[in-house]
Amino acid sequence: MKGPETVGALNRPLRRAAAVLVATALLALVATDLWMAGVRTWWDRHSITGSVTSSLLVVAFTGLIVDEVVADRQRRDRSASVAVQALIVFGQTRRAYAAVTATGDSGSEPVDPTEELRTVATMLLTASAGLFDDPVARRFLEESERFMASMLRTVRQRSGDEPGDGAREGLESGMSRLNETVAPLVARLSPEDRSVLEGPPESGA
């Protein structure tokens, strides 16, 4: 089932094509009225028809332009909102990743990775509805879910206080893919907003 964002993306070319078609018809109407005496005479004899036709073309063209401007503004507002949600989820995922890959001699207070992963799961459930309708955010959502499952599997399977070399390499690869999927969303925000939402880099992220 297509979400609103996907349906809107499919309708945008149709709206633009309709606007071009109406504008072409309006220009053709004006041009023939100016340069073709026969057409001008015909419109003079059918003034009501000409008035209605020209009015409908002007209204259709104006409506399509206004609709596209409003839709474009809504897309920009929504894209920023989706990016903020994604970056918040990404920040918590980084914290969970740092907790899962933390070494015993890091010198910092140990953090329970299970609790961090539980927080990631809750945030993904909350944000999934907003992220799913945006194609770019949906890829980030899918990658986040896969990465969270990998971290959870690592926590459950490891025998010591920290993951083995193979598990660590797999998590590093997953974190790299997550960074790639979140990058287009981060680019939607200003540097000031990014610095506030991202916070200080986590160890290992």
Task: Explain this structure.
This protein has seven helices and no strands. By secondary structure, the protein is mostly helical. It has two domains: 70 residues; 122 residues, no CATH class. The protein starts with a helix and ends in a 7-residue tail after the last helix.
Total beta strands: 0
Largest sheet: none
Strand content: under 5%
Total domain modules: 2
Structural class: mainly alpha
Distance between the termini: 35 Å
List the helices and strands and how they pair.
Blueprint: H1 4-35, H2 37-45, H3 47-100, H4 113-132, H5 135-157, H6 165-186, H7 191-198
In short:
By secondary structure, this protein is mostly helical. The protein has helices at residues 4-35, 37-45, 47-100, 113-132, 135-157, 165-186, 191-198. The protein has 2 domains: 4-73; 77-198, no CATH class.
